[in-house]
């Protein structure tokens, strides 16, 4: 049977532990350096603590080292990889192929989505050069994933929730072009979330100050089963910059979805870790940070993947404004609003406005911190649910290993055995002259109650089996200590038995040609160091230009390739019907303008992608 893994993000150890407790089978977290998120980084000591907690449930910790590296960083990266291995991590996620030319720790290697894993040929190549897992591009459809799953043996990981990068991953240089902040080195400034003008070659304004590249968030919660059957092992939630409430909510939501599949299709799939998660709240993805949801290209191309009006979290639509008076208004909604809720709406200029609920009277009239611009008919969204967030902070979700306890009493020896549902067991023997309990019924009740207690341990005792006939009389305090010793011993035994997974893909083909037999890399090759050059040369790439980040002159280059197509979005695609009325008299090419920056759009209809090139005014 195939195991399914729920993979959660963590920006720090506290969120990582919370993710494990809420049912994650694995957590990915960044160390201090090379982790693709400059804003967050964790010490080796903290990561080691997190691994020890995760391994209690046979869950995994993956360390991100998925930035591009300069020559002067190679030695430090090599040392950090080994430090992470000694700290107990179960895999390393990388982007820079120069690392493959090093003596890396003997644990699995995962190819980051930043390695641009966009088609079957690339996944096959990564499998041949030694990766145990490939993180698939978000743009892939279920049909493409299924094809890759059938034709490769490498583990497949797919994003199922969170923010979407509009560019093909690893192929975006806009942030570096605009502000010298490299997405491939963990410092993306997200210029794609800014407002742009869309103009044609004659200067006609097709869109004015709209967030043309700002995608909605991904949510594939309804597609767990087809993804699993297509070959996906790991269901990945994006969000290493997100807070604990978001991680709790999304992990809880996908834990329920995956558990449903495991329960219903147990002949096909098993869980990748151990423990039963008992949620203390009802997950609701719309109630924590989101920009609205889409399934992106899972099924087919469609227009509902972008929010042109705002790149910010809008939350859950709760209703429309029925009436406005003085500094209050009435919303037609079936939701209960409370003071502290955050609301937002688009004003008549289509600008997002936010406000905080201060008071709600018995008739539903709401007083907020802002009423300017609120009008009858405006759609209202709740982007901060005060009650839900309070619930998340107070909830007591637990993750437990189910076990049974059995007592035997023979030849003046009391034997206590605990056995979990995964076959692990431990027995303690006490050879003492215990007296016979005078009241069997009462003693049985007391013993069962005492031996079922598991408190804050990882175990949930389902049943207690006691000897037939006479029972030994064991004072309550002594029995409690015997139970605590028994549980501690089994956990220690489980922890000792845990082994870091070994790299299984060790049949490496050092001469396997790079996909499509590319012989020359421009800046899209992302080569910044000598070892990466050695790697690509071995695989047939003979001419290798400097990566974008290593160039002095970064102008006039391609900055982005994206499957999100503005020609399609405005109704001018020759291949796909959008049911959008196109503008008249459009003269190509089209341009994006953002303050002093201008970008030329090109449309590769053969591959169904749009490209964005740096195009200074003086070039036209």
UniProtKB/TrEMBL annotation:
This is U32 family peptidase. It comes from Flammeovirga kamogawensis. Residues 380-494 form the Peptidase U32 collagenase domain.
């Amino acid at each position: 049977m195939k195991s399914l893994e729920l993979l959660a993000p963590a920006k720090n150890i506290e969120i990582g532990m919370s993710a494990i407790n809420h049912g994650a089978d694995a957590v990915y977290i960044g160390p201090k350096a090379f982790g693709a998120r400059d804003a967050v980084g964790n010490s080796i000591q903290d990561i080691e603590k997190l691994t020890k907690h995760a391994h209690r449930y046979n869950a995994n910790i993956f360390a991100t080292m998925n930035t591009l590296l300069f020559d002067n960083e190679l030695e430090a990266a090599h040392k950090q990889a080994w430090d992470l291995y000694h700290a107990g991590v179960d895999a390393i996620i990388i982007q820079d192929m120069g690392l493959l030319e090093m003596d890396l720790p003997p644990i699995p290697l995962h190819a980051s989505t930043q390695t641009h894993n966009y088609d079957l040929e690339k996944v096959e190549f990564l499998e041949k050069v030694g990766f145990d897992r490939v993180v698939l591009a978000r743009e892939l459809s279920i049909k493409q994933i299924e094809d890759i799953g059938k034709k490769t043996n490498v583990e497949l990981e797919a994003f199922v929730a969170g923010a979407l990068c509009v560019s093909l991953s690893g192929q975006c240089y806009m942030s570096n072009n605009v502000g010298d902040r490299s997405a491939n080195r963990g410092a993306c400034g997200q210029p794609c979330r800014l407002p742009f003008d869309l103009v044609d070659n004659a200067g006609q304004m097709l869109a004015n100050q709209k967030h043309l590249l700002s995608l909605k968030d991904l949510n594939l919660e309804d597609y767990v089963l087809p993804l699993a059957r297509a070959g996906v092992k790991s269901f990945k939630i994006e969000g290493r910059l997100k807070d604990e409430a978001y991680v709790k909510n999304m992990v809880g939501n996908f834990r329920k979805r995956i558990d449903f599949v495991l329960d219903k299709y147990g002949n096909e799939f098993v869980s990748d870790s151990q423990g039963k998660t008992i949620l203390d709240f009802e997950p609701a993805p719309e109630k924590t940070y989101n920009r609205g949801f889409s399934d992106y290209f899972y099924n087919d191309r469609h227009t509902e993947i972008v929010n042109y009006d705002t790149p910010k979290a809008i939350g859950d639509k709760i209703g429309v404004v029925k009436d406005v008076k003085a500094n209050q208004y009435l919303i037609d909604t079936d939701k209960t609003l409370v003071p502290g809720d955050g609301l937002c709406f688009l004003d008549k200029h289509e600008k997002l406005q936010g406000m905080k609920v201060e008071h709600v009277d018995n008739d539903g009239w709401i007083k907020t911190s802002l009423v300017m611009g609120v009008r009858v008919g405006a759609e209202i969204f709740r982007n901060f649910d005060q009650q839900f967030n309070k619930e998340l902070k107070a909830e007591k979700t637990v993750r437990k290993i189910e076990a049974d306890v059995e007592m035997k009493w023979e030849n003046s020896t009391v034997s206590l055995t605990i056995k979990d549902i995964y076959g692990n067991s431990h027995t303690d023997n006490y050879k003492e002259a215990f007296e016979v309990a005078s009241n069997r019924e009462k003693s049985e009740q007391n013993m069962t109650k005492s031996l079922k207690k598991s408190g804050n341990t990882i175990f949930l005792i389902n049943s207690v089996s006691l000897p037939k006939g006479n029972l030994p009389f064991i004072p309550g305090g002594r029995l409690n200590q015997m139970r605590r010793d028994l549980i501690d011993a089994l956990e220690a035994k489980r922890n000792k038995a845990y082994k870091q997974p070994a790299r299984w893909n060790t049949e490496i083909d050092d001469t396997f040609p790079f996909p499509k037999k590319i012989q020359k890399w421009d800046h899209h090759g992302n080569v910044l160091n000598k070892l990466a050059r050695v790697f690509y040369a071995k695989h047939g790439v003979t001419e290798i230009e400097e990566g974008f980040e290593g160039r002095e002159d970064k102008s006039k280059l391609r900055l982005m390739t994206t499957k999100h197509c503005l020609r399609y979005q405005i109704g001018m695609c020759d291949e796909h019907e959008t049911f959008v009325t196109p503008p008249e008299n459009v003269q190509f090419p089209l341009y994006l303008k953002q303050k002093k920056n201008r970008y030329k759009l090109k449309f590769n209809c053969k591959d169904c992608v749009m490209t964005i090139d740096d195009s200074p005014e003086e070039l036209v």
